[in-house]
Amino acid sequence: MTSLVHKLGSHWKANYIILQCSRKKTSIRDKFRETLQSGPDLVDFINETPETTKSYNGKLRRAKGEEERLRLPPWLKTKIPVGENFSKIKEQLRELNLHTVCEEARCPNIGECWGGGEHGTATATIMLLGDTCTRGCRFCSIKTSRAPPLPDPQEPVNTAKAIASWGLDYIVLTSVDRDDLEDGGSAHFAETVVEIKNRNPNIMIECLVPDFQGSADHVKIIVESGLDVFAHNVETVEKLTPFVRDRRANYRQSMLVLKTAKEFNINLLTKSSIMLGLGETDEQILQTLKDLKDSLVDCVTLGQYMQPTKRHLKVVEYVTPEKFKYWQDIGTQMGFMYTASGPLVRSSYKAGEFFIGNVLKKRKLVKETKTLVT
């Protein structure tokens, strides 16, 4: 951890000089991109080994009409480390009646994130508004109901208490869909952000939100809450959306939500995520990236879809690490501020949070520099 801090410190000093010297010639967006490129790479966080694909002879794609499930390739077989951090977070979540998408969605990275991984920084993605969703997407293992229990009114305070005690500098808040609530739970989201910021204004908060049925008013409530990153996942390509997501989820509606958030606050970072391996084509993935760019999205993540239970959609294809690297390069070429693409990358994953956190810190530095200059 100490070496990482030193590594980051040197980059901060170097980039501060660069920002000072070139602020009149380079746009702020370009400066952020330079910062990310000069910092640690994703390989510093994700131990994927593309060379394993050369010796793997297993089948990576199901033929049309084939029902047999694919065997898990070696680059998706991860150890699940547990330890003091893992146990501490789990115990505290139970005591405060809090839920995490890490558990409910059966994320493959739960051990690494909760356990702290090699860098010893424990993170978790808190799931607000209970653990029961009003929608039934075919890729998601979260339980569903038409009439879930009402949200816990103490959840915003309990969430803020837990996060403050973890000593984190970046947290992701997400939630189930609550179409049964008049505001979709947007006020509950906003209250949680306010409670966290009141305890520690330096904590960076990402809100990974539902689509609120496309309501601009509800999106505005989130945008004005004081969060740092507005995230909403498009999940898959447009053609597959009706087969993958709940019928109330709409590809164009998701794009509109992302664009609306940006229009309310042009300086707010926006983010979305795509799952690969559901049968999409390269042309469809590229079009989705173009649509996200047109919707003013800053950051995008691409990861492997993994079937959570036998009741859910089967994996059509296990995408190789090399192909994920290809899409990361495409995202960079298209001008996204940040693109993370890898088999085990998820919309909420500590490598991505580290990078985006770095962007936010750099943005704050640029703002302070401008204030000093003027």
Structure summary, number of beta strands: 8
Strand line-up of the largest beta sheet:
1-2-3-4-5-6-7-8
Structural class: alpha/beta
The description of the largest β-sheet is: 8 strands, mixed
Q: What's the overall average pLDDT, rounded?
A: 77
In angstroms, what is the radius of gyration?
20 Å
Secondary-structure blueprint:
Blueprint (H helix, E strand, L loop, with lengths): L1 H21 L5 H11 L13 H4 L28 H12 L3 E2 H4 L5 H6 L9 E4 L26 H12 L3 E6 L10 H14 L4 E5 L7 H8 L5 E3 L9 H4 L6 H14 L4 E8 L5 H13 L4 E6 L16 H14 L3 E4 L8 H24 L1
Parallel strand pairs: 2-3, 3-4, 4-5, 5-6, 6-7, 7-8
Antiparallel strand pairs: 1-2
Helix pairs in contact: 1-2, 1-14, 2-14, 7-8, 8-9, 9-11
Give a verbal description of the structure.
The chain is 43% helix and 10% strand. It is built from 14 helices and eight strands. It is globular, with a radius of gyration of 20 Å. Residues 1-26 and 35-51 have low confidence and may be disordered.
In short:
With 374 residues, the chain is an alpha/beta fold. 43% of the residues lie in helices and 10% in strands.
